[in-house]
Structure prediction request, 360 residues.
Amino acid sequence: MSLRNFIDKAVSPWMQADGPDSDIVLSSRIRLARNLSEFAFPVIASKQQSEKALEHIKTRIKDQSYHTLGKFEWIQMDELEPIEKRVLVEKHLISPYLDKDSKYSAVLINESESVSIMVNEEDHLRIQCLFPGFQLNEALTLANGIDDWIEEKFNYAFDETRGYLTSCPTNVGTGLRASVMVHLPALMITQRMNRIAPAINQFGLAVRGIYGEGSEALGNVFQISNQITLGKSEEDIVEDLRGVVMQLINQEKAARKDLLKMSKVQLEDRVYRSYGILANSRIIHSKEAAKCLSDVRLGIDLELIDELPKTILNELMVLTQPGFLQHYFRESLTPDERDIRRATLIRERIQLENSDQSTD
Prediction:
């Protein structure tokens, strides 16, 4: 398969689209946790109970359509190869938890891969909507619509006082996790993020890496999400997150402006050194690749580089992950082999872009 065809098939269509404030906000996500009242929650269910819950959900939702999203594809997790499951994690379509505990689990995914519904994760259902750029309200509207559609088919575990009941106490209430993925290179270069992150935590929000709790913030990409789900409405949770993210956007823009004003030559040198590494390296570790991609994306956003599309960061953040590397090269790779193949794939991607431009 050619690299262009692989990119078109491997990278989620929603990820290749543009969105508001996409120079800083890479994506917006809404996730709703729901459980069925008549079944034991997945974290305490026996194998037989988990299997029954899975079949109950499957018979009522498989091959169903929701408005313009079309039909959802039902993917049974125990029918996938380990690499295939890892690819779904790297595309943010399933959680690492579902990958590890997948005997009686499944996921439903729409054609554009902007919506996934995990079955028998920590909760019976986890509805996830992904949008490019800063579109939290749009994601919430879609998630609520899908939630209402699913609720017509099932009896949710709900308490009039506590709200939606979930496996993890921190999700009780609305069951809502709202998050944005933000690229903050200037705040990191100027070391302002060191004092901003603790302040964000004081607002009841969490600052995490690209794969959520316990993951590392590679390439200056952070996930900002709510921690409180009880005692607030969904709209209030989203509005609180929106307010903080707007401040982050303004702070990042100010830091970028300061870098251009005070250290433009040094910034250009940093950007083009990273570009040179990506375009010419024969071996590159994931951390170095993420750092260089972050620098190049910053150069693109500040119009220091005009020969690459800004979606290249989104693409290569996914394509250079271990699962995708092995999926693309169609073989199991050791860590050292992945570093070599990662460099190869990045070089090929940059060369592909240059060849596309030369034929325009």
Observations:
- The radius of gyration is 21 Å.
- Strands lie at 25-34, 73-76, 106-109, 115-119, 125-132, 158-159, 163-164, 176-183, 205-208, 221-226.
- The mean pLDDT is 89.
